[in-house]
Amino acid sequence: MERILVVGSTGAGKSTLARAVGRRLDVPYHEMDALYYTGPGWAVNGKLVEEVSALTAGPRWIIDSIGSADVRDLLWERADTVLWLDYSRRVVMPRVLRRSLRRTLTREPVFGGNRETLAGWFSHEHPAWWAWAQHAGRRQEIERRTGDPRFSPLRTHRFTRPARAAEWLRTL
């Protein structure tokens, strides 16, 4: 386990698990949203493909994302391990709602110095709406990829409950 993708729906805990695994294995952790959003107004990184390509050319890394469409195959082709947080909506939605509420109320800066706002809650791109809308599709995409012969060399660990992921983490 040296080139690791942590995948799952929004709010599953990908970043939290990726940071913890990175610390335990001394593998450099990279937050995909921080690579993707680079400035005010949720500006998208125009050099994302080049940066992710350079980063994943290295021997050891952990990234907390299935990957945006433009880097998805690159990530999956270069990874050796997938940690899949396959949690139900009943698990992820309270997490997303608590996180977004905290970020909105505290004005906590997130990627590229942006902040979640009260007005943002009414956008279909808000994390809560996004998590609800993309949950089933994300699960199908990950399931398809883990069964794809192109990615058969990947070791996949699928966790359907947070307790199972925590148990596995303790064994590292």
UniProtKB/TrEMBL annotation:
Keyword Transferase: yes
Descriptive protein name: Adenylate kinase
Domain of life according to the entry: Bacteria
Molecular function via GO: kinase activity
Gene3D superfamilies in the record: P-loop containing nucleotide triphosphate hydrolases
InterPro entries: Cytidylate_Kinase-2, P-loop_NTPase
Protein keywords: Kinase, Transferase
